[in-house]
Amino acid sequence: MTPTTAQQARVKTLKINGRDVSASGDQTILEVARENGIEIPTLCHLSGLTPVGACRLCLVEVKGVNKLLPACVTRVHENMEVFTDSERLRKYRRMVLEFLFTERNHICAVCVSNGHCELQSLAQQQGMTHVRVPYLYQKLHVDASHPRFKVDHNRCVLCTRCVRVCDEIEGAHTWDVFHRGIKARVITDLNQPWGTSETCTGCGKCVHVCPTGALTEKGVSVAEMAKRRQFLPYLTMMREERG
Fold first, then answer.
1. Which among 44, 82, 165, 189 would be 20 to 30 A from 72, CA to CA?
2. Which domains does the chain have, with CATH numbers?
3. What would the pLDDT profile of 214-233 be if each residue is shown by its tens digit?
4. E strands of the chain, at which residues?
């Protein structure tokens, strides 16, 4: 079998929202959808980093499957029929967003990432004008011990982008997730102040992949923290080289 024939044998055909599309056998629903200009909301996903399906905003319906599936980690198969927009999906996505807002303390009006926040943008896109569940009002701290950056746990959505970029791209593995459920937090090293970390290289990748105002630079005021992601196009290339 020639390489060309082998490549063709891996091609899958499927439908997304009734539209015929093709994909390689190892692609995810999200990858195929984006290649074909079909938008699926995500918060934890970032091209070049290992997908983890943490935020559950990319849930889609697949014909013949009763449960909703996360598009970022679900591989395509031949004759799959996918639906990315329905009343059921809109309901679930709205619910997920409301839970994210109420679990922590997201006060957009005083946030340094106001206007540059992916969580805020998703809420607007999904038509979320109010929250229908009670806020938890957890007492979460701000760690400003690092000379250049700070972490505000009130605004963290546990997307683990910081954990993955630090491990997979920078290779420092400074960040990790501590505890479980509602007590879960991102931590540096062995749960010590960021400024005392011996593994942090100060590269700032974690700050600029963060989708909210949880990780920011010092010295910025309200609405001034625009994330600089010029290095993002290189994430996929670097990951492929390491693979």
1. 189
2. 8-85 (3.10.20.740), 110-242 (3.30.70.20)
3. 999 999 898 888 887 766 66
4. 11-16, 19-24, 59-62, 69-70, 81-83, 142-143, 149-152, 175-178, 185-188, 215-217
